Amino acid sequence: MTTDLAVGFDDMVVLSEGGVDVFVLNLDADDEVPPYYIDVAGRRFAFSAVTFLVRGHSAQLAQFIREHEADGRLVLLGERRERYLAYVYDPTAETDEDDE
């Protein structure tokens, strides 16, 4: 079982919806449990335990992304079995870990 995955921007598509843009990574190709971490260009995104339906997520997804971006965090979505899995990168968390 893999707990982390490293990908590049070429592996993702951009979803534009509700006035926000977010990268989406298709995770359906692997039958294993989705990774807990996704590394993209030196940034480690952690699974937030929040998911959204691919169809019918309404304004909730855009609001979720806006709230995180307002707090300085980035959001990445993993698409898996008709759901978006929300991964979050918090640059202050890495700074805190480095200080310890």
Approximate helicity band: 10-25%
Percentage of residues in DSSP E strands: over 45%
User: What are the secondary-structure elements, in order, as H or E?
Assistant: EEEEEHEEH
Low-confidence stretches: 96-100
Supply the helix-strand structural class: alpha/beta
The average pLDDT is 90
How many H/I helices? 2
Strand order within the widest sheet? Answer: 1-4-5-7-6-3-2
Overall 3D form: globular
How many strands? 7
Largest sheet: 7 strands, mixed
Calculate Rg over CA atoms.
13 Å
The separation of the N and C termini measures 29 Å
Describe this structure in words.
The chain is of the alpha/beta class and 100 residues long. Helix content is 22%, strand content 46%. The chain is built from two helices and seven strands; from the N terminus they run βββββαββα. The chain has helices spanning 58-70, 91-99; strands spanning 4-7, 12-17, 20-26, 37-40, 43-53, 74-80, 83-89. The protein has a seven-stranded mixed beta sheet. The protein is globular. The termini are far apart. Residues 96-100 have low confidence and may be disordered.
Summarize this structure as a short list of keywords or feature phrases.
single chain; 100 residues; alpha/beta; 7 strands; 46% strand; disordered C terminus
Q: Briefly, what is this?
A:
This protein is an alpha/beta fold. The chain has two helices and seven strands.
